[in-house]
Design a protein that fits this description.
two-stranded antiparallel sheet; D-Maltodextrin-Binding Protein, domain 2; eight-stranded mixed β-sheet; about 240 residues
């Protein structure tokens, strides 16, 4: 009987009425970014593949991440991708994932002595990091007094190019693209140490139909099993900056 009930639940989940979903995201290559008039990237391909499997219609919009997260706390049929799932955010959304793991790391902007710990970094110059990033709060909680908070990752890379800071913080996937966009050769940035490693998710609003969210999670599980998710990772994420 339990087996029959489980099969029935799965059937009802996948036969729920197809929905129109608003999916919000920010600019974060190679996960999601503008290419001409089109939004592209790993995360974009994932949500489009999930929508194809579930039969839902998705409307993509690029907005700043913090604004997107605020919208997704109150608007029905709304989600944000790709989002780091933290203890503070956990109860605010319905989650689908993980899509992948992201490592945030400390990079030096010159050839100074290797950094083995945050204590080393605290004595070797300023660490630039966008204040809106989780990494900023993480480093601040470690008691570092040499943080240089900036507004955007573009400003961070510009400071590195001009030689005004000694360290930058970024995830290992986007560091090369962020550097190139500001005229800084990725080879001028040197991986020093990992800071954080977290899973990325799609965060749906609490008002989104839970059956739809479950349907997306099951579709993602299928993509994991049949290798489609790995194919998308290879397409977008295999050309990372060497450490």
């Amino acid at each position: 009987m339990k087996r029959i009930a489980g099969c029935l639940l799965s059937f009802l989940t996948f036969t729920a009425v197809a929905a129109d979903l608003n999916l919000l995201t920010d600019n974060h290559p190679p996960l999601h970014f503008q290419q001409g008039n089109q939004l592209v990237g790993f995360g974009v391909d994932v949500v489009q593949a999930l929508a194809e499997r579930t039969g839902d219609q998705v409307h993509l919009q690029q907005v700043p991440l913090l604004r997107a997260l605020r919208v997704a706390t109150t608007e029905p049929a709304t989600g944000v991708f790709t989002v780091l799932r933290t203890a503070e955010r956990n109860g605010l959304y319905q989650w689908v994932g993980p899509l992948m793991d992201v490592e945030t790391a400390l990079y030096s902007a010159n050839t100074q002595q290797p950094v083995r710990s945050l204590q080393d970094a605290s004595t070797q110059g300023r660490i630039a990091v966008p204040r809106k990033w989780l990494a900023y709060d993480y480093l601040r909680k470690q008691g570092l007094n040499n943080l240089y908070g900036v507004e955007t990752p573009e400003q961070m890379m510009r400071l590195a190019r001009l030689g005004r800071i000694e360290f930058v913080v970024a995830d290992t996937l986007s560091i090369a693209t962020l550097a190139r966009e500001e005229g800084l050769a990725p080879s001028q940035l040197h991986y020093q140490m990992p800071l954080m490693k977290q899973g990325t998710y799609i965060a749906f609003s609490p008002q989104t139909d839970a059956r739809q969210v479950a349907r997306w999670q099951q579709a993602l599980d299928e993509m994991n099993r049949d290798g489609r998710l790995e194919q998308l990772k290879q397409r977008w994420l295999s050309d990372n900056t060497p450490r």
